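Hey L., structure's done. Input below.
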Amino acid sequence: MIYESIVIGGGHAGSEAALALARLGKQTLLLTGNLKMVATMPCNPSIGGPAKGTLVREIDALGGEMGKVADKTCLQMKMLNSSKGPAVRALRAQSDNVEYPLAMLEVLRHTDNLELKEAYVTKLIVDNGKVHGVVLENKEEIRSEAVVLTTGTYMAGAILVGDQKTPGGPDNQRPSVGLSEDLRSHGIMTFRLKTGTPQRIKKNTVDYSVMEMSPGDGFIHHFSHDPEYLRILDKEWPCYLIHTTKETHKIINENLHKSAMYGGLVEGVGPRYCPSIEDKLVRFADKERHQLFIEPESIHLDEVYLQGFSTSMPHDIQDKMVASLPGMKNAVIAKYAYAIEYDAIDSTQLKLSLESKVVENLFFAGQVNGTSGYEEAAAQGLMAGINASRKLDGKTPLVLSRNEAYIGVLIDDLVTKGTREPYRMLTSRAEFRLLLRHDNADLRLTEKGHEIGLIPEARYSRFLTKKEAIASEMKRLAEIEITPNAKTNALLAKYGLIPIKGKMTIRDLFKRPDTDENIVKEMYPDILVYDKEIYEQINIEVKYEGYIAKALREAEKLKKDEGFLLPEDIDYGKIGNLALEARSKLTKIRPVSIAQASRISGVNPADIQALLFHLKTRK
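Output:
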């Protein structure tokens, strides 16, 4: 059988890519080594966090699946940075590491146009620079019009513990062998990266009494904009906070040479923002202790996850390290920590659609592109699936701008700047983060999701109702006045608010920094008639309207530069006054616009001016 699309890999990227393609009507085959490992969490059993939580909301707003499954299988929900501004607030869920993969597999198995098959791919079928299918380990050829490659950390994977290096993928799975060499034979460049995971501890061997409990907020939050997916348990499962001790540091420092990383065994570059515990001690030698969290793995497992304690030390040293931690004197390690190395591709060889510049109709998504994290992988998988479908239909790709979504920032960074270490999405990477908030992901992207064909009519209708409610309520509240009399000021004083001296509207009341929708609702219960999320939007939009207006003006300037397209046939080698580095980088990356060219590392403002002058004289 000839498929319209094949997805290689069943992780978070592969699951979203396959679902997007199938839901858009493409006959799709998902190939993965083990269906039981679909969408597993070999590292942290959680979804979300700073910037990452917003990625999940954006995935959902475009019609992806991660937010729904995270809501259905969560053990704890918490809004991070809730005391700070809306630009940095982020939802994080502790997920059930047994239930999450099962729920995603169930969705995949019941999706029309999608077939699942356990198999390893060793080669691509490429003819005249265009992909036409794959070759399996058993030499079977399967033809397709497009391929999305999402191999995660499996491609030429190797497990590292102490002085031992063993071919393998996460959780003792087989690595993908042969595919790296095949990609290189087609001109796709690869390099080595490293990541790792901490120990799993038998939870009944931990003394929680000496730890600080870190509870959730209650099940009042959700990733999906369709709250029917939210799981309600009798209780939230707590996390616990501890810190490393002087004894921990002593053990690590005395055995540093036994670590795979510091013993010379590691080839790949590890993650900057989630380093191993030995790397933390070397890089931050002035710190007396480091924060660790005990997190639940699953209601079905007698295991907890020791977040922040990733290591590649030998097992006997890990035993001593864990025993030195508060509450861990008698702890039993169920699974030892390890480091993993794997091949990733040079992401600057991709278009903004995530299609390869080297092999047509071949798309890449997830950790194979150099990213870290389930959320970054799922976001890329969704976009690769969407754009593979649109390529087959002869439509223009969906490319999200940096002012439209964190997804846009993520992909633009990868394609324009590349990465030599596992890339993690951070709020600081987004210059328009006040526009790209957790709370407004649906308002930013649902229109696009519906236009693409991934948001059904019923959900789109609910979205339009919400959008209209916000607009009409903003107008109505600007017309309701509060009179500065004794009764009004007594009511304000009751909630610790400063008295008013002149007339103001309810909208003006929202503008005050000491007021939010909860207080206004308590003060005037008959005035606020909609759900909390409507007034949450109004509160943020009114309070930050000056900053938001400034950000929107900057976004308009970006939009103008993004609209300044560069000719595909431009020869940067013939442009005078371009620095040698700029000439090399522009030739390699082939930016599509002046805006993208200006973001390339090594291309400075003088180079952009030379480029603009060349284009002007060329015209």
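Residues 457-548 form a domain with the Arc Repressor Mutant, subunit A fold (CATH 1.10.10.1800). The two ends are 50 Å apart (CA to CA).

-- N.
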